[in-house]
Specification:
about 270 residues; alpha/beta; 7-stranded parallel sheet; about 45% helix; 7 strands
Length: about 270
């Protein structure tokens, strides 16, 4: 795929990987539309790209707010008249320790990591269907097949996204010539995992290059880094009784918060 003159929408554009994606794509003579919640950082990134002669529009977008997402897609379409590629990368990584089981944390994670992408799809798909072309690439996660202790909300949100994108892939390709790509990163040194040591983690720029190259080649699934891909593929083959023997500290990994037990009953005591 040639990115020249392509209109590329990027959500979560102030994140480590997405910022690098925007910088690299700005050299491809494409037309960028950047969206993120952190407005100051978004303006800073966008202005630097514009100073370097990139075509770039931007707008603050809180993906917890469906109306913001609707405005972001409309803003892109009204300015450029089409959307060729959407890279949906905004997300959060919040632990949900069993010691203090809190459904609000789980709901927030699902809202941001899954439902926000559904909202983007709701507004982007009609445009691409009308164009009879387009590519939608959504960022899931490498370990999207099995639950990981302490990270159930994150895993469930990303597994839901992976499955949903897969459910769309064949139909939108056959009916409307729209390509669906699921991006499955392993560990990348971004603010999301700051303080959580992950052996073999890639730098954001390296991850961005892999993603852009995968989109360019039209891959259906982009997963990396290689060693982590192999480890997860092997662990996915473990029967449940073997998988359940993996020590919790290995599953939760370094940097997982220490949490005190909460034995308070949640039901109405009256």
């Amino acid at each position: 795929m040639d990115f020249k003159k392509k209109v590329i929408l990027i959500s979560g554009a102030t994140g480590g990987i997405s910022e690098e994606i925007a910088k690299l794509l700005s050299k491809e003579e494409c037309r960028l539309a950047l969206f993120a919640r952190r407005e100051e950082k978004l303006i800073e990134i966008s202005k630097k790209l514009i100073e370097n002669k990139a075509q770039c529009i931007y707008l603050k977008c809180d993906i917890k707010n469906k109306e913001d997402i609707k405005k972001a897609v409309a803003f892109t379409y009204e300015h450029y008249g089409r959307i060729d590629i959407a890279i949906l990368s905004a997300g959060i990584l919040v632990p949900n320790p069993i010691q203090r089981f809190d459904s609000s944390t789980i709901k927030e994670t699902l809202d941001v990591n899954f439902m926000a992408n559904i909202y983007f799809l709701e507004y982007i798909l009609p445009i691409m269907k009308q164009q009879r072309s387009g590519t939608i690439a959504a960022v899931s996660t490498l370990p999207d097949k099995r639950g990981v202790a302490g990270w159930g909300a994150y895993g469930a949100s990303k597994a839901a996204l992976s499955l949903f994108m897969e459910s769309l892939r064949a139909e939108v390709q056959q009916r409307y010539n729209i390509k669906i790509i699921t991006i499955k990163p392993g560990s990348v040194e971004t603010p999301m995992i700051e303080g959580k040591h992950r052996p073999g983690a890639l730098q954001p720029k390296e991850a961005a290059k892999i993603i852009i190259n995968g989109i360019r080649k039209g891959k259906k699934i982009i997963e990396f880094p290689l060693m982590q891909v192999l480890v997860y593929k092997i662990s996915n083959l473990f029967p449940a009784w073997v998988y359940d023997t993996i020590p919790l500290y290995m599953q939760k990994a370094e940097g997982y918060p220490t949490v005190e037990e909460d034995y308070e009953l949640k039901h109405d005591k009256n």
